[in-house]
Write a structure and sequence with these properties.
The structure is a homotetramer of 158-residue chains.
Chain A: H1 2-15, H2 21-48, H3 59-70, H4 83-157
Helix pairs in contact in A: 1-2, 2-3, 2-4
Amino acid sequence: MVPGFLARAVDVLLGRQGRSLHFKAAGAATVVLLFVVLVGSGLVVAAERGAPGAKLTSYPLALWWSVETATTVGYGDFYPVTLWGRLIAVVVMVVGITAYGMVTAALATWFVGRDQERRHHRLHQAEQAVEQTYEEMTHAVHERFDRLERMLEGGRTQ
Amino acid sequence: MVPGFLARAVDVLLGRQGRSLHFKAAGAATVVLLFVVLVGSGLVVAAERGAPGAKLTSYPLALWWSVETATTVGYGDFYPVTLWGRLIAVVVMVVGITAYGMVTAALATWFVGRDQERRHHRLHQAEQAVEQTYEEMTHAVHERFDRLERMLEGGRTQ
Amino acid sequence: MVPGFLARAVDVLLGRQGRSLHFKAAGAATVVLLFVVLVGSGLVVAAERGAPGAKLTSYPLALWWSVETATTVGYGDFYPVTLWGRLIAVVVMVVGITAYGMVTAALATWFVGRDQERRHHRLHQAEQAVEQTYEEMTHAVHERFDRLERMLEGGRTQ
Amino acid sequence: MVPGFLARAVDVLLGRQGRSLHFKAAGAATVVLLFVVLVGSGLVVAAERGAPGAKLTSYPLALWWSVETATTVGYGDFYPVTLWGRLIAVVVMVVGITAYGMVTAALATWFVGRDQERRHHRLHQAEQAVEQTYEEMTHAVHERFDRLERMLEGGRTQ
C-alpha cells in the first residue's frame, strides 16, 4: 500500500507540471522527503530497539517524530538516543531542510518568471514598434528608387 | 469578531498590492496560515480532550502552541499526544513552512524585479540610442535621394 | 554602550552597500532583528516577573532565550508562561523568520543579478555586432550614392 | 583525518561547479558550516566542562547537539548552560541558518537561470529573424543601385 501511495505521489508531483526544471526539482525533493520520512521512521525504530531510555519504540510514534524532525519543529517529546538513530535523524533533518529550500526556490522562480513574462511582453511590444518603423522606412526607400527610375526613363524617352 | 478580523486581514493582504502574482500568493498564504492557526487551535483542543497526559486543554494555550508550531520553534512546553492532535499539528507545520517559503519567494521576486527594472532601464536607453542613429541614417539617405533627383532634373533642364 | 553598538551596526549594515533595495532591506531587517532581540529580552523579563513557574528571570537568560527563539531552535530550556511574555515571543519569532527570509531573498537577488550581468554581457555583445553590421551597411549605401552621383556628373560632362 | 575530510569536502564543493558565484557561495557556506559544526562541538565541550547541570560532556554528544542546533531542530535533549557554551551555540545557529539561506538562494538562481535561458532563446530567435529581414532588405537595396547604374550606363551608351 505504501509503494502504491508513493507511486501515485510521484505521478501527481512529477507528471502534471513536469515541463520546467524548478517544478520537477521541487516535486522530486518532496517525493524524496516523503520516502525518507516513511523509511527513516522504520529504520529509527529498528536502531533504537532495546536501547536504555529509548522512546521511539513503535512505527506510528517514529512517524510523528520524523515529521516534527523534517519540519525542524523538534518539540523534544521524542528523540533518538543511539548512534544509528541519530545518524538517521541527521538524514531526515537535512533532507527536510533541502526539500523546503527547493520548494521556496521553485516558488521564487515561478514568481520571477511570471513577473518577467510581463516585462518581456512590454519589451516585445517595443521591438515590434521598431520593426514596423523599419518596414515603413524600407518601403519609403523603394519608392524613392521607383521614382528615380521613372525619372531616368522619362529623361531617356524625351 | 474573529471572522471580522479575518475579513479585514484578507482586505489588507489582498486588496492593496493585489496586482502581482507573488504579492497575491504571499498574502493568500498568510491568510491561510492565520486561518489554520486560529481553527487548528480549536480542533487540537477538541482532539486532545480527555487523553491521558494531554496538556493542550484550553484554546489560549492551544493558540500559543500553534504559533510556536507554525514558526517551527517548538519549545516542547506543549505538544499533542493523540493521533488526531498530531495530524492537525502536521497541517499547522506544513502550512507554516509553506507560508514562510511563499513570503521569502515573494520578497526575492520583488527585489529581483526592482533590480531588473534598473538593468532594463539601461537596456532601454541603449535601444533608444540605436533608434536615434537609425532615424538619422534614414534622414541622410532621403537627402541623398533628393540630391540625386535634383542632379537628374538639372541634367534634363540643361 | 548598547545604543553605540546599534548605531555602529546600522552604519555597517546600511552604509556600505546602501545602493540596492535588496541589500538595504536585508540590512534593515537585521537591524530590526537585533533591536527586537535586545529590547524583547528586557520586556519578557518584566512580563514574566513573579509569575509561578517562570524561568525567564534575568536579562542574560532572556537574551539567550530570545536568540534561540529568533533562530527557531527552541530547545525548551526557557519559554514564557505569561500572556504578555508569549505575545513578545510571537513578535521575536515572526521578526526572526522574516529577517532570515529577507536575507535569503537578498542573497538570491544578488546571485541572480550577477548571473544576469553575464547573460546581459553576451546580449550586449550581440547587440554591438548588429550595430557594427548596420554601420558598415550604411557606409556601403553612401558609397553607392557617391558612385551614382559621379556617374551622373560624368554623363553630363561627356 | 578531520582536516583530510574537510579538504576533500572543499574540493568536491568548490572544485566541480566553481564557475558561477551562486554555486561557489553555497559550497563555501556548506564548508564553513561543516567546519563550525566540527570545531564548535569541541569548543562547547571545553566551555561546559565542570559546569553544574552540564550535559554536553563528550565530543560525540556535542556533535549530535551541534547538528540539531545548526538545523534549528533543537529537541532540548542537550543545550549549553554556560556563557561561552551559549555564545558558541549562537555562532552555530547563525552559520546554520545562513548556510541554508545560501543554498536556497543558489537553487533559486540556478532555476531562474535555466528558466531565462529558455526565454532568452526565444528572444535570440526573434533577434535572428530581425537580422535576416535586415540582410534581405540590404541585398534588395544594393540590387536597386545595380539596376540604376545599369540604366545610367545604358542611357549613356545609347
